[in-house]
Amino acid sequence: DGGITQSPKYLFRKEGQNVTLSCEQNLNHDAMYWYRQDPGQGLRLIYYSQIVNDFQKGDIAEGYSVSREKKESFPLTVTSAQKNPTAFYLCASSIRQGPYNEQFFGPGTRLTVL
Amino acid sequence: AQKITQTQPGMFVQEKEAVTLDCTYDTSDPSYGLFWYKQPSSGEMIFLIYQGSYDQQNATEGRYSLNFQKARKSANLVISASQLGDSAMYFCAMARGGSYIPTFGRGTSLIVHP
After folding, report:
1. A53-77 burial string, b = 16+ CB within 10 Å, else e?
2. What does the pLDDT average to over B38-67?
3. A98 lies within 8 A of chain B by CB
4. Which residues of A touch B32 (CB under 8 A)?
């Protein structure tokens, strides 16, 4: 079955540590996205990528970094520079960027800073 | 800047009744797409329905329909014959010309009572 996988489902981090969230898709989609969701809030865009080896900052990129070395993979690193990283992180993909292409989402990773 | 507004933080509906979830948007672009997603307690975002700005007819997908009123900039989701499994958060999103990255509203929590 095609889809998006995110791992781990739950992640605990000590302050000052970098952590990497995994996102893999086998849908052969060109575009991939990372969103952050806080309680009672909508999704806010962190980074997105339209093609391999290219990515752009979203609305809240500070304290995060990404890479897109393979079409199917788009890992997100939450660095120690992110002051309030506790949140629910969702990865998504779409065939391409455009008004007619819905996004497919992974199950999410819940990050908690201890 | 584009903006999505969902004014109903929470809605209650009796099983088998219809319910309307409100969404208004603000954009000056002539080309844009409107989406509705469902987020159950598990966290994964599930695509429900899409409406393009140039579409003449309201979109329908099974029990879901989108009441698109372009002049009023509203894109309300109508769920007919509510089921207990419809209890979830519902998010409205808009992707406009340019990057076509969806912007999400804050969501509406729907609870279906037996």
Report:
1. eebeebeebeebbbbbeeebebbbe
2. 95
3. yes
4. 99
User: Across residues A13-34, what is the average pLDDT?
Assistant: 94
- Interface check A31 vs B, CB under 8 A: no
Q: At residue B70, does pLDDT exceed 90?
A: yes
Which residues from B are below 8 Å from A104, CB to CB? Answer: 47
